[in-house]
Amino acid sequence: MEKFTTLQSRAIPLAIENIDTDQIIPARFLKATDKQGFGDNAFRDWRFDKRGNLNTDFPLNDPKYTGSILVAGDNFGCGSSREHAAWALVGYGFKVIVSSFFADIFKGNALNNGLLPVQVSEAYLETLLNTIKANPETELIVDLENQTIGIKGSDQQESFEIDAYKKTCMINGYDDIDYLLSKKEAIEAFELSRTN
Amino acid sequence: MGKTLFDKVWDAHVVDSIQNGPQILYIDKHLIHEVTSPQAFNELEERDIPIFRPNQIVATADHNTPTKNQHLPVKDELSRNQLKQLAENCHKNNITLYDLGHQYNGIVHVMAPELGITQPGMTMVCGDSHTSTHGAFGAIAFGIGTSQVAQVFASQCLLLTKPKSLRVTVNGKLKNGVLPKDVILYIISKLGTNSGTGYFCEYAGDVFENMSMEGRMTVCNMSIEMGARGGMIAPDQTTFEYIKDREFAPKDEEFENKVAYWKTLPTDADATFDKEYVFDAQDIEPMITYGTNPGMGIKISEHIPVLNDASFEKSLEYMDFQKGESLVDKPINYVFIGSCTNSRIEDFRVAANYIKGKHKADNVTAWLVPGSKQVEAQIIDEGLKDIFETAGFELRQPGCSACLAMNDDKIPQGEYCVSTSNRNFEGRQGQGARTILASPLVAAATAVAGKIVDVSKAFENAFEKELMS
Ligand code: SF4
What we know:
The complex is a heterodimer of chains A (about 200) and B (about 475).
Chain A: E1 6-14, H1 21-24, H2 44-47, E2 69-72, H3 84-92, E3 96-99, H4 104-111, E4 116-119, H5 122-134, E5 139-143, E6 148-151, E7 157-159, H6 164-172, H7 176-181, H8 184-193
Parallel strand pairs in A: 1-2, 2-3, 3-4
Antiparallel strand pairs in A: 1-5, 5-6, 6-7
Chain B: H1 5-11, E1 14-17, E2 23-26, E3 29-32, H2 38-46, E4 57-60, H3 77-92, E5 96-98, H4 108-114, E6 123-126, E7 140-143, H5 146-155, E8 157-160, E9 164-171, H6 180-191, E10 199-204, H7 206-209, H8 213-221, E11 230-232, H9 237-243, H10 252-262, E12 275-280, E13 287-289, E14 297-299, H11 310-319, E15 334-337, H12 345-355, E16 365-368, H13 373-381, H14 384-390, E17 394-395, E18 416-419, E19 434-437, H15 440-449, H16 455-458
Parallel strand pairs in B: 3-4, 3-6, 4-5, 6-7, 9-10, 9-12, 10-11, 15-16, 15-18, 16-17, 18-19
Antiparallel strand pairs in B: 1-2, 2-8, 13-14
Helix pairs in contact in B: 2-5, 6-8, 12-15
The complex binds iron/sulfur cluster (SF4).
């Protein structure tokens, strides 16, 4: 997993609520048996129409917007547990997703792939979306060490929560498997101690 | 202070806790399928890590499988490859696989309970969000991502922060024609799609106590649609009787010992929950959804609400519905009875009872997709297949099918489908398809009428009552 400390980048606004993982990566693209290539099909049915033409209204297709931060509406990543959604977003080039609320499973999947979910207040989300729309050149600064997100050139910033263990993993690029394997003895002892 | 059902099962599985961090939770049963496991197998292989407890893993092929001609080689090359990889991975690692065509093959959340794999007090995971289904037995069961599938492969454990507790109580007697699906659609319509995020839900009250195991599974299945990681119902006599004598159920004295333990699991009277909701059974009517998330549900007798909200409007635009309109009499061309929410024998009995002696409308394509080979066999044994075929319904072979449209079972662009599945997201049943979630009874009635009908009206008539008995 790639290490993550700070990121300064422009951002793409996607002011839609309840974006489910079926939209992030539709089921018909789940037939691959490796993690590569999902980025091409991220938000496929919103980026392209039925005939495969680019939908120019969609923010990801709008040349004014670019960057590795996606700023999205409330309740991002609900629905299917498919980790392919996280792979698609990472594959597309995102490193941070900002929303006012994340679905549980998506949040875990993102963290396991070095994609940082940054949960902000509804008011701050509104500010971010408006600022980016007013000036697409706006850059955001995400500082994982200090758990803050801010707009470059503005002192308006907000802090965000992250589990201390997960934070260490992100900063060092560790994953849970390494940790769990180091606990094998305790796990075996637990198995032997069980009565039910 | 007393403990909840959830506390008791969780606490019994904690191996260790990281200071200011997550806990290591031991997983009893790990279910896998072809779509979310290959990358996890690859990961372990790349890192040269063996599968820790292969005999606690059970695999099935369901998401990607065709529902016709299952005896023939799978036509779609990518699907075929995914199924082949699953078989190879299971074979290499000594994992039991109920592959396509096996007498125990089926949708993972239908197959495991009917084989007695699912039991009270267990922790169970699967790379599929509807793993919450198994909570109907008083197990902690939840969906995980593929990285977590790899973690369980490697250690039979997961690193997790204990969720908060939520209880939804429904007391009273359900009206005629109101099925477990209506109960859960009603609850989600009231609570919204993220009310449960960060919580594990327990369903309590006499409505659930009086429900069959099939009904409880339908309810727990959709817990994830209100954001909860899972849902649970306290194990009781109904649970024990369901499990008894199933293939992998404990036998004889071991069974009696287990039952004694299972009886200790229900929530203590003095336990408290972080959040509680209470509903009255009499307020629930047959439900349908009108939008693009499962929380956008109404009673069939109601009208679509009038809200000024961009996401709401986007949703109605996709569905081509108007604010304030009624959906009764909307022509419908597709009906799907299936998915891990409603593809158990009881669901087909309800549908067959309604359909018997009637015929589907000419405009309707009606697919019935059993949840497993065993359900399929029951449908044939009980004579339901004849009823369905005489009525013009098509009985297909088991699988996830049009629930997620990964195989050929897709609803065409722009068409409405009244579906007993669990998600009405944009494109869930095929690109541009418009899904209306409902119970098997509402789905059957829609197929017969060729349009949405208010079944609650039908059940006010006494002679129709026998349908529900
Ligand atoms: S039937 Fe649908 S919801 Fe259930 S496991 Fe299959 S795809 Fe998932």
